Amino acid sequence: MSYVSIRDLRKSYGDVQTLHGLNLGFEEGEFVVIVGPSGCGKSTLLRMIAGLEDITSGEIGIGGQVVNDVEPANRGCAMVFQNYALYPHMTVAGNIGYPLKLARVPRAEREQRVREAAEILGLTDYLDRRPKQLSGGQRQRVAMGRAIVRQPRLFLFDEPLSNLDAKMRVQMRIEIRRLHRRLSATSVLVTHDQVEAMTMADRLVVMNGGRIEQIGSPSEVYARPASAFVAGFLGAPAMNLLPATVDREGILRADMCPDRMLAGDLKLPSGTELTLGVRPEDFTVAPAGRGGLPAQVDLIEDLGGMRVAHCQLPGGYASAVLPRESAVREGTHVSLIPDVARLHAFDRVSGQRLAEVAVAGADAGRAESDARSEAFAPA
Predict the structure, then answer these.
(1) Which domain does 287 fall in, by range?
(2) Looking at the structure, do residues 168 and 310 belong to the same domain, yes or no?
């Protein structure tokens, strides 16, 4: 049995239903990240696990015990909030130790546990300071320390990094993962940031509109998104999603460029209307007229580690990752050639993933793309 089990969980506010029969489980010692856009119900789910939101129907179990009617303080979990929720008049030591004071833990034991938490989080030199004397990252560590001293078996993080600057977010991602590994507790973190989700999770739960779209490891979800929503939500830059059709010869053609063949010998029924997914790194940018999709490079983003070309197509936009040495410039007319071995296909109406786009001669197609890429490299 999972350490945290959720069965047919529903939440309604009046006539508005926000969670639609969720079923999932978190294993002991696992780091789970619940990710999705704002308003998808992920924070509501977390607060229901913590006992801070009432359950409309369904069941939540923690450690083999159904906790629907158990008070938050007795569920064996600790929650770290987005806004830190520190007491400004208390010192760091006072803030960290306050839950123990409420629980009437003896003073000597309380002080020892505060020191241990401060050592884990690198706060030993700040115990006599007040929150206003700390940086954002230090305040977040104090909030985490307040959770640690309770020695819970379940940590719940509600978008804990959203108030930090970009550099501090990276540092805190590492610190939270180290903390999880050191304490060996089950951790559930909610975020709308897909980079945080991909880099921190043992397992992802992708939510949309109060429903679960997909559950899996970051690599599984990235390689085989279960829906067009997941495909477009996870990945930076995002996956290109283009309307396409399989013609009677089993050839895939983009609706915006029906005279161009993107792949042949597809194992999909003729006439299938689909949404074609292509990761930006799976496009080869070749000279104009070399096949694929005709495009004009509108903007190039230089991100240091890679360059991304944002291209205008006859009926839309697409992005492609460029080799560092590429001669492509803004305003250039090019052809975007997909790697036929890495195409994704989704039902045009439901958005659900179709059977694998099996393409005969995929290796040959990749070799041809590589040759075109080399031909377009600077002399």
Answers:
(1) 237-375
(2) no
